[in-house]
TrEMBL record:
Entry protein name: Peptidyl-alpha-hydroxyglycine alpha-amidating lyase family protein
Biological source species: Bradyrhizobium zhengyangense
Keyword line: Glycoprotein, Lyase, Repeat, Signal
SUPFAM superfamilies membership: NHL repeat
GO MF term list: lyase activity
NHL repeats, residue ranges: 128-152, 160-199
Pfam families membership: NHL
Domain of life where this protein originates: Bacteria
Length: 325
């Protein structure tokens, strides 16, 4: 029987074997996911076909990005169904149509800024848009910075530096905005989400998280909620400690936990378990599509244990179907 996660209004059924790919195809790590106005699911992954498009039942529609993307990392979709594809392997953000036509490139492919220089980009990680269409980029692994751009890609301002104080970052991994223009940043290795106004002024932070990695704002203007994907332990010494994830947490606009899905007994490939939540999106019915980097993260989670073939094939993409009351 498929597992059911969560409680009350936040119960989700795990959809088994969701992705139906062409014969011989593998997704490998799924870095991020987005859903368009037709409930088509865009799967930004590190396999041979970087962008795989599925319908909401998991049927294959098309692919694109072969030869274009170096290493998939972040994916955002706007109200006009434009995709913002963040490639940390070649230090760029590309705005694309849903059939893969590149409309805008921010950053210089294969030309990273100096490490921790604060200049864009050095292994950028994700994007989000302001209500005016301005582009925020989290930057990421080789920087500790958020950059703000005009809709046509001109740099407006930047903020952040390495550290643990408010406004400082230790792997700025994901970014989201709400309808009022607040900016939410998953500060992964500081175990928190930081909240800023649209100009980068620090407002508050959400704690009691474990390596927050994926971040999605949903629920509308009046009562936005957030789904946060948390990685599990990354060290040998705490690999088998319970209650640290990997898991999903659902919080309100103040960061107060509403529900938590999974993670009590660590990672796994069985129904109801997670490997390494890395990117997520919701469709019009409230179903969750979760991308996981289970291949990259396998050794950190399982040591020398052999990795099942299903992890590389399709297991790094999961669908959690909302259960109606």
């Amino acid at each position: 029987m498929p597992a059911i996660l969560g409680t009350g209004e936040h119960r989700y059924r795990v959809v088994e074997n969701f992705a139906k790919l062409p014969d011989g195809w593998q997704l490998s790590d799924v870095a991020s996911v987005a859903v368009d106005s037709k409930d088509h699911v865009y799967v930004f992954n590190r396999g041979e076909h970087p962008m795989v498009v599925l319908d909401r039942e998991g049927n294959f529609l098309r692919s694109f990005g072969e030869g274009l993307f170096s290493r998939a990392h972040g994916l955002h979709i706007d109200a006009d169904d434009n995709l913002y594809c963040t490639d940390d392997g070649d230090h760029t953000v590309r705005k694309c149509t849903t059939d893969g036509k590149v409309l805008l490139t921010i950053g210089i492919p294969k030309k990273p800024a100096p490490f921790m220089s604060g200049e864009p980009f050095h292994r950028c990680t994700h994007t989000a848009l302001s209500p005016k269409g301005e582009i925020y980029v989290s930057d990421g692994y080789g920087n500790a910075r958020v950059h703000k751009y005009t809709p046509d890609g001109k740099l407006m301002k930047s903020w952040g530096e390495p550290g643990t104080d408010p406004g400082q970052f230790n792997i700025v991994h994901n970014i989201a905005t709400d309808a009022d223009g607040w900016v939410y940043v998953a500060d992964r290795e500081n175990h928190r989400v930081q909240v800023f106004d649209g100009e980068g002024k620090y407002e508050t932070q959400w704690n009691n998280l474990h390596r927050p990695c994926a971040l999605c704002c949903c629920g509308g203007r009046k009562s936005p909620t957030f789904v946060i994907g948390e990685l599990g332990p990354g060290l040998d010494v705490n690999r088998h400690v319970p209650n640290l994830g990997p898991r999903l947490s659902i919080v309100d606009a103040k960061g107060r936990r509403i529900a938590r899905l999974g993670g009590e007994k660590g990672p796994g490939v069985s129904s109801g378990k997670f490997l390494a939540p890395h990117g997520l999106a919701l469709d019009s019915r409230g179903d969750i599509y979760l991308g996981e980097v289970g291949v990259t993260n396998w050794k950190a989670s399982f040591g020398d244990q052999d990795m099942p073939a299903e992890v590389r094939a399709t297991r790094c993409l999961q669908k959690l179907e909302r259960v109606s009351e």
